[in-house]
Amino acid sequence: MIDDLKYIALYSRVSTDEQAREGVSLEEQQERLKAYCRAMGWNIETRNYVDDGYSAKNLDRPNLNKLVKDVKAGIITKVMVTKLDRLSRKLLDLLTIIDLFQEYDVSFVSISESFDTNTPPGRLTLQILGAVAEFERERIRERVYENMYHAAKQGKWLTQSPYGYQLEDKQLVVYEPEAKIVNLVYKMYADDGLGYYAIAKYLNNKGIPSKQNKEWTIRSIKRMLTNPVYKGTLVWNRVDSSKKKRTEKDADDWIIVDDALPAIIDKITWEMVQKKVNKKQMASRAQTSPHLLGGLLKCGNCGSGMSIGWSGSKNNRYRVYRCSANKNKGTCTSKQYKANEVETWFKQGLLSLYNSIDNNLKIALEEKIHDQHYQDIEQKIQTAKKRYKRKVEAYTAGLIELDDLNEERKKMKKIINEAKRANYEPSYDLKQLEQNIRTKLTNVIDAIDNLPIERTKALLKTIVEKVTILGDKEIDIELNLTE
């Protein structure tokens, strides 16, 4: 049972070398503290907290810990010391523990410095000390940042190694048993069309543990699929961990070093996966729909999605695809179609596409690749220019030095020159891309007759962008040529 009384805590400390050097005794400290209480007319009962033979290098002391525990228990009203350095010689530690006292409405008194947080002068002194401490914290943070910045620029890994790697002398090396799993995850996502949940479930069912020997989750799979380390790029200072809620920093503050680490995934595959990750995904309800074209089929009359429904008599019920605008708003005059017939037309359309992969498809594929290539180049140039513009603004405001601005200007010029060189012709293997399309089409056609709908739909997403029904036996299939 917690004591209902409130006490004044008298804290005294002395280290062995202080006793020898300065003749500071615990008894003297205690007497001075008690005398101060009498002089101030404080009649509250006192409690002694004594750390004999402990230095002020840190706050981990037996009776100081006991004092903190009693403060949190609510039985202390005031903490007293003879001098501030009895509590701590480090300003940051001193402010930390005084903040704790303040949190529990406990005043702090140091009699030598006439310091009392319960008085206006004491609170003013505390604010000044706090400002000095904050300055010291910022300086420490700056020094740490500078050291880590230089280490990152040299390609050194500064935290725990990610899955697929091991850490040797601050350098990442590929750990083959885990690297095989990384390749498998990327294949399942990019080629097999599986989502984060399905991949996590597969790995957990196979008894394959994560880095911390925990089960895989949607979050851990997505983190693996979006981590640039797997393409050999080091990105540091991306997240602000100084606050309770981790937030992503401005891209200007990131340290990015390409080709600084051993890659597990080739850059083309990694970039393709990022496009898929950032692409607007099919609604989760549509993904789990037990109907082959749920979430993919569009109305050729108004462009709305086609939803599944049921029609027919009580003894002859059958599935139908019906325009959602017609069903929900009555704004479309499109008719409904028997689902089995539509899905048969769709399969026939895929077979027709497979058998007619000719120059027309090659031309469309080349155009798609060129368009995407030039879009990527333009985006890189615009990003570099915007980044430099922000640096100019920072220099104008006196936040960075001229050397920093010149360094950013060199980076911008380098990016623009490299982008212009790459602007002439995108590098790709047309025959390989054509073969990829053939393989995916074959997989989907085979899956329709042999695999569960959920698995078939996952494969569909890897090659089919959209399906539009134009009329009886008229299906328009738009392929996704960039994944």
Element layout with pairings:
Layout: E1 7-14, H1 16-22, H2 26-40, E2 46-52, H3 62-73, E3 76-81, H4 84-87, H5 91-103, E4 107-110, E5 115-116, H6 120-153, E6 165-168, E7 171-174, H7 176-190, H8 196-205, H9 218-226, E8 234-236, E9 239-240, E10 247-248, E11 255-257, H10 267-278, H11 284-287, E12 297-299, E13 306-313, E14 316-323, H12 324-328, E15 337-338, H13 339-355, H14 359-396, H15 402-422, H16 430-450, H17 453-460, E16 464-471, E17 474-479
Parallel strand pairs: 1-2, 1-3, 3-4, 12-16
Antiparallel strand pairs: 4-5, 6-7, 8-11, 9-10, 13-14, 14-15, 16-17
Helix pairs in contact: 8-9, 13-16, 14-15, 16-17
Structural class: alpha/beta
Largest sheet: 5 strands, mixed
Q: State the share of residues found in helices, binned by percent.
A: 40-55%
Number of helices: 17
Question: What's the pLDDT, averaged over the residues?
Answer: 79
